[in-house]
Q: What sequence folds into this?
């Protein structure tokens, strides 16, 4: 495996799917300073929330970003929508660098990049009616749709499957799923080209999740809006995204089209992540056995990330090289174009069951030993 | 007791139908949502204590406002020296001859020993002066609190630090002592000590002094509220659509700080009334012949009045107790109406 031919990361070649890049991010970094010390407070460290990531979203494409909690997914989304200032790196939208643009410079682009938020209970102003919430972005950007803003609000409510007569109601009169639909309508109000959806369904219960995801998919297909879909639920990302990137501790460790990531993953972490998805099988029906990997411990602190490969502290294949050399994000031999992996010792491109499960968690291993003895 | 930081507004959510698809039925009735403000009003109306105390408070403000009219109908004013006009009502020491300070059909609340002012109109005008000063202090305090508190909370960083230290510094002042000591100083800023001080200067000085040490608690609460609001996602949503800081403060934050603002204001006003009365009682506030609530107490405690006319004390005393109690109960009810979770 180590003798794999390593190809340099092909940029913008995108042999698998057409379309020009809408959003390009390179070397994006966000470090939050950690203050401390007495009597003079000074910066004593940095939370390396996002540490040099590259990604590109094409026109009309849905790009999924998955990873554990705290791996920097949401920070990436907030950096792209410019809610936070990046420490380093560039964000370019349609070839224009917006990573340092001021509010005025951003004004023409603001309407094209919108965001859907995670918590529908906190993302709507409790003191405004639904109509005001949805027409707010139009008012800010001075957009006068034909037929007036109110008509447009009714249209948008209808698009997201709410009663257009409800535009005079207040957010507290709606359920979580309905609130999230209002959030979607607000994001659509400016007819954006790119929507950053920051875990849009993780606060909703499962039946509502499906409704909202299907709504987003409908919107994406019918209106041709590109999505950066941030989620920790792998199944939803698989349902929704054409391309997927896996993040771990502020870095992208594997990226590729949906099939490559879900059926031919190479990075050990992707294997572990996929194996952690609970399996539902109908009685009597035998699904093909999947590999079983159980990691131990927590994600290391982003204040002091491990040297070399960041996953090495929890990886069962880690060797000395992993501690000294950071693996580049490259296309491994045998991978499809656009499927990039950052690993020195990649796994076989399959998710089928191995001869022996990998159980790194000592508690779980002990438990299983007990049950096998009985 | 005072944690009215309620940004959610309404606790009782009116759940609408689960899936409100675009119904084909043409709805003739305009669907109108109930705003958090209207829900609060509905809850407040159910609170009997609140409604009664609100009536009492409104009554006091009404008689304060209508004092000139009432005194005209009553046919007397608080400046007439009845000791000179009607000397037959007073004995040689200036004490009303009739019992209980000369209460009669003509002088409902009696006459003041000494100068012989009419107590009824004096009380009306005293309430008027006190409430006007306290209201002015409350308004200036609320405006300062909004400005500095919301600025500190929303802008954060250095602004927050600077405003926070100013608040800490001012809170360290002993308020009553500072009022007494600084009143003559502030008055002398306007007029030289040798000239006679016009009443409006004293009023202005009272407002300035109380405002100077009155805004900090409100600013702190509003800072906390806006700090919490700033992290809410609807603020981020507004920023993503390109809203300016000014618009965010005006349209997103201010409507959400109305709740703590109203609650605090209803607690602040009675405390300003008592503080103003205290200053006038101590002789650094409003002085004779201008009628004032607090100054009536100081009159009541003079030797002449104390020994000859004990009833005099009851009129300003009882009216002020009723007012303060009613206003504080109103404050509690307002808080309960805004934040039903903390209700008893």
A:
């Amino acid at each position: 495996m180590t003798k794999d031919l390593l190809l340099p990361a092909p940029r913008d070649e995108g042999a698998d799917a057409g379309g020009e890049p809408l959003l390009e991010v390179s070397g994006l970094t966000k470090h939050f300073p950690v203050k401390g010390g007495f009597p003079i407070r000074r910066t004593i460290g940095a939370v390396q929330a996002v540490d040099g990531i590259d990604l590109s979203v094409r026109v009309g494409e849905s790009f999924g970003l998955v990873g554990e909690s705290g791996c920097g997914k949401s920070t990436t989304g907030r950096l792209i929508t410019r809610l936070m200032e990046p420490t380093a790196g560039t964000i370019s939208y349609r070839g224009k660098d917006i990573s340092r643009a001021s509010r005025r410079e951003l004004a023409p682009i603001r309407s094209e990049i919108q965001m859907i938020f995670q918590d529908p209970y906190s993302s709507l102003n409790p003191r405004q009616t639904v109509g005001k919430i949805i027409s707010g972005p139009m008012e800010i950007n001075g957009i006068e749709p034909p037929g007036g803003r109110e008509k447009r609000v009714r249209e948008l409510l209808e698009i997201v499957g709410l009663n257009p007569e409800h535009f005079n109601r207040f957010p507290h009169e709606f359920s979580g799923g309905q609130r999230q639909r209002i959030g979607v309508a607000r994001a659509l109000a400016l007819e954006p080209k790119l929507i950053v959806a920051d875990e849009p369904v993780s606060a909703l219960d499962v039946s509502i999740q499906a409704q909202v995801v299907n709504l987003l998919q409908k919107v994406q297909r019918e209106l041709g809006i590109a999505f950066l879909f941030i989620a920790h639920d792998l199944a939803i990302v698989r349902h929704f995204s054409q391309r997927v990137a896996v993040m771990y501790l502020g870095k992208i460790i594997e990226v590729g089209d949906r099939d490559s990531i879900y059926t031919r993953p190479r990075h050990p972490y992707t294997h572990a992540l996929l194996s952690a998805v609970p399996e539902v099988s109908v009685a009597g029906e035998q699904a093909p056995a999947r590999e079983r990997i159980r990691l131990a411990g927590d994600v290391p602190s982003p204040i002091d990330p491990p040297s070399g490969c960041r996953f090495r502290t929890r990886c069962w294949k880690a060797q000395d090289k992993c501690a000294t050399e950071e693996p580049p994000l490259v296309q491994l031999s045998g991978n499809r174009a656009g499927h990039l992996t950052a690993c020195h010792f990649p796994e076989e491109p399959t998710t089928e069951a191995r001869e022996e499960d990998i159980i790194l968690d000592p508690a779980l291993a002990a438990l299983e030993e007990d049950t096998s003895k009985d | 007791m005072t944690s009215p930081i309620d940004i959610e507004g309404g606790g009782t959510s009116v759940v609408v139908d689960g899936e409100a698809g675009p119904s084909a039925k043409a709805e003739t009735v305009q669907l109108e949502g109930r705003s958090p403000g209207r829900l609060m009003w509905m809850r407040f109306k159910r609170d009997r204590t609140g409604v009664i105390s609100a009536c009492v408070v409104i009554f006091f403000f009404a008689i304060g406002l209508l004092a000139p009219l009432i005194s005209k109908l009553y046919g007397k004013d608080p400046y007439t020296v009845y000791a000179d006009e009607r000397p037959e009502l007073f004995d040689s020491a200036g004490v009303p001859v009739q019992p209980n300070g000369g209460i009669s059909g003509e002088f409902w609340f009696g006459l003041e020993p000494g100068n012989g002012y009419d107590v009824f109109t004096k009380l009306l005008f005293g309430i008027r002066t006190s409430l006007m000063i306290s209201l002015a202090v409350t308004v200036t305090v609320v405006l300062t609190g909004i400005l500095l508190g919301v600025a500190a909370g929303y802008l954060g960083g250095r602004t927050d630090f600077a405003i926070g230290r100013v608040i800490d510094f001012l809170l360290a002042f002993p308020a009553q002592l500072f009022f007494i000591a600084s009143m003559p100083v502030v008055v002398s800023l306007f007029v030289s000590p040798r000239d006679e001080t016009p009443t409006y200067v004293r009023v202005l000085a009272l407002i300035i002094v109380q405002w100077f040490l009155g805004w900090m608690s409100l600013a702190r609460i509003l800072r906390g509220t806006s700090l919490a609001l700033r992290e809410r996602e609807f603020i981020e949503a507004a920023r993503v659509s390109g809203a300016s800081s000014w618009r965010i403060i005006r349209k997103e934050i201010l409507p959400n700080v109305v709740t703590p603002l109203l609650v605090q204001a209803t607690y602040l006003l009675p405390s300003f009334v008592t503080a103003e009365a205290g200053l006038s009682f101590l002789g650094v506030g409003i002085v004779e012949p201008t009628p004032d609530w607090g100054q009536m107490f100081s009159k009541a405690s003079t030797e002449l009045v104390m020994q000859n006319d004990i009833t005099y004390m009851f009129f300003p005393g009882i009216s002020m107790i009723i007012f303060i109690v009613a206003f504080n109960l109103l404050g509690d009810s307002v808080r309960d109406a805004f934040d039903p979770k903390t209700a008893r």
